[in-house]
Amino acid sequence: MRRIAKWHGNKITAEPSEGCKLCALGAKLVLFITGECDSNCFYCPVTKERRKDIIFANEQEIKSPNEVIKEAKMISAKGAGITGGDPAITINRVVEYLNVLKKEFGQNFHCHLYTSHSLTKTQLDELRNAGLDEIRFHPPRLNLTNKMKNSIEESRKLEWITGIEIPVIPDKEQSISEIISFAIDRKLNFINLNEFEITEANFETLKKMNYESKETVSAAVKGSEELAYKLLKRFKKHPIPIHYCSSKYKDNVQLRNRLIRRAKNYSKPFDTILNDGLIARARIKTVSEQNLLKIKQVLIEDFEIDNNLIEIDVENCYLFTSWQIISKLINDFLKSFKEEIVNIEIIHQYPYDGGLITYLEPLFEKK
Ligand code: SF4
After folding, report:
1. Residue 345 is part of which domain span?
2. Which pTM value belongs to this model?
3. Distance between CA atoms of residues 217 and 215, nearest Å
4. Ligand 1 centroid to 74 CA: how many Å?
5. What is the mean pLDDT of residues 301-307?
6. Is the distance from CB of 55 to CB of 64 less than 8 angstroms?
7. Which CATH number characterizes residue 130's domain?
């Protein structure tokens, strides 16, 4: 009898796909190739701001393939997950980016793609020839049409990994069971069941449809996990790997590991990399640019702080340094500079230039 195993806190009936293994390590670059999509899923998590023809590499908006290479290097990526919107809206761009990624990082750079389109044989061949390693079909609104079934069967004939990825909508047990049965029957390589999530983009619609979050601080919808476990149990005797991917896992494992990888390449000698992949640093805002330069000089010469433990942002009059150093020196420091400083804060931020600040502790504020 096959068992349901735990994998990074998720549940799984057999070994996950290569794409999932790399995601768990945070080693997959998320390439949001366009925000456009014509599938109109009522649960679409893509925000209004992103539902247009824009490209993101992880959290950064980009304009060219060169920028995707830069971001892939920043997280020491071993592959990319191509998503959107629907990448099939812009197959030529997907092919262009695949070619660039494979050329730069080699054929072993593992690329997978999500689509809600029933791709034609020509489109599948184009993607395969550009080096796509794995394809994940998402039947929009859990409606697996004959057209999509044909496309999936066509894809299965190519020598690559073909799977299905769907949200576990709590009251859609019948449709989900039929999709899993199809995947088993056609011997697909895997099926991924995602915990159904309420997001900023679908909140109003899901509320009207009476879907509720399972906990106040969670995006996960009540009943989704229970249904996923029920389905894993029912289908576990079949050889196809069924992987249940929880909402918590996406934040606590995938995102966290990706941020840690980025923080290791991005952080400065004065930063502390935190457990969640954010960086902690001290930020000092000065009254003027002249004050900024003077304070930097005094910190180096009188306080004997190493030059590489200080960075300045002249445009915004910010000086960054180690939060431990500032916490220790703050009293002496303020004796010398009280009038020249607007504020001193410890911040936790995403490891990007101007990255989102999630924690801010004021140490001093000019009256
Ligand atoms: S296929 Fe994906 S991107 Fe397109 S509408 Fe559905 S959930 Fe949104």
Report:
1. 268-365
2. 0.90
3. 6
4. 28
5. 93
6. no
7. 3.20.20.70
